[in-house]
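Lab notebook: predicted structure, single chain.

Context: the supervisor wants predicted structures on file for every construct in the current expression panel, including those that have not yet been purified. This is the next one on the list. No modifications to the sequence; it matches the entry in the shared construct table.
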Amino acid sequence: MSNREYPLYTIKNNCQDCYKCVRRCPVKAIKIEDSSAMIVPDLCIACGTCYRVCPAKAKQARNDLTRAKHLIQSGKDVYVSLAPSWITEFDDVSKEQMIAALRRLGFRGVSETALGAEEVSANVAKLLDDSAADSSSENHLFISTACPAVVEYVNKYLPERTSNLTKLTSPLLAHCRLLKKALGKDIEIIFIGPCIAKKLEADKHPDLLSLSLSFNDLRQWLKEENIDLKDIHTSVFDKFVLAKAEEGAAYPVEGGMIETLKPYEQSKKAYLMQITGIENIKRELKNIKDADFDRPVFIECLACEGGCINGPCTSSKKSGFEKRLEVLKESDFSGLAGKRNPSVDISLDYKEESITPPEHDEAEIKKILATIGKYSIEDEINCGGCGYNTCRNFAKALLDGKAEPEMCVSHMKQQAQRKANALLRCIPSPIVIANAQLRIMEYNDKFVETFWNDEEHTDIYDKENLHGADLRDFINFTNLFSASLDLEQDIHREHVRFNDKLFDVVVFNIDKKQIVGGIIEDVTNMEMKKEQIAEKAKEVIHKNLATVQQIACTLGEHMAETEVLLRSIAKDFAADDEQNNSDLTIRTNSNKRDY
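Prediction complete. Output recorded below exactly as produced.
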């Protein structure tokens, strides 16, 4: 089964590694996979606890709204089985308004799930009567099957009690049988209520129940269709199908089922009690001794503490008292309560689905405990941070592949501390970490070596332990630390002078406004080397300048001599040209006279 096919699933990207679901899951049906808390369907009982407590909304109930719309659009006759707890969720909305709204969504009709509850009570009364009459019967303990999450829990985790489950359907499935008997076996039925486990019931009994929607699904659907419950107009046709429920409307509250049984004479022959909450059911049912019974015992068991009015898909902020009162006001015990006879076959056999946890020997457990730093009993602090109540249970979960070592808070803290200490030791520069009051929280040996002064500090502090010491007693540039805390920014300053040394200081925030750290690098020698290099560079520059000047002077002298020589040569060439031109003129004139 894929992640989203089961009634409950995890949105991996939303999971925040808080392990709250692991801590609160009554059957530990959570597996940590790639740092995300994933539900294990084979182990899950669909009680919805993880859905209720997840702070990041990573746990989600399967949304069957699209399937419901398709069913309506298919043209089939689709009816609603409406949980009686709806009145605690929708304030100031009448029955007629709710029915009218659902019919506008396309449903053929609406009927109360509480009708099925009344059928269950009549059948339970008969079972108790038969059991009381049969003194030879070994089975005098009856566990209600009204809550599918309880049925899942018993079958998987208390298989020895599966035979004690009343061989009757839940009120919802009983209601489905009533509807199909009265309206035809081909009708489709969609439940609307506060329960996630009903989705599991629909998956297991598709012949009776088509789908299960939550109250939140209904709100979403009404919003998409722009239907306002309080403004909707009603008509004479807006009535519940079959009949209006009477005493069965009390089922959503703790002890409500017991109240419906009390009017029956048969109930006086049995002990009636109720237990709500899986943790309470787990504790109580394990300790029951059948030999103590002198008459039949019937236990009403509901997975949600206080009853279905506190189901995982409820959103009402009313107190439990207010919701209980609203439900009981709608319950009518003046009619046929205590007088009903079973009218439809609601028998159902339940089979064990026993989950046998893997066995691990002591050597395996000790070996895995060592990997998380638990080498002795004293190391097993059983803090519960991982989601398991003991370190040994966590070790077993590791061996089962359901957990990861990173879930151990103390182990991760110790590991982080070791890494931090290793870094502090290995970094060659002085390091100090201080709180908002500039009290030293952590430091390395280099810090002590650099800033400890026997004359100033010996009478005040222990050189071997400076935790809690005032940082201002060791350095005079704590203003950088204060500024970093105030501004919530990292600060870098070069060439900070302290005594006869120079430091490059980097101050950084670890926890805003609370914790600040500093890396202080001694650059004194480095700066001295730079100065020496600079002086040598200056000497070289001066020498180079002198050389260049000498070269320039020499070149200048050579240039001057060359210029005089070239001028002399030029004059000589010019004089020769004039003489040659004069001789040419004389010869030309002489030739002219000859002609």
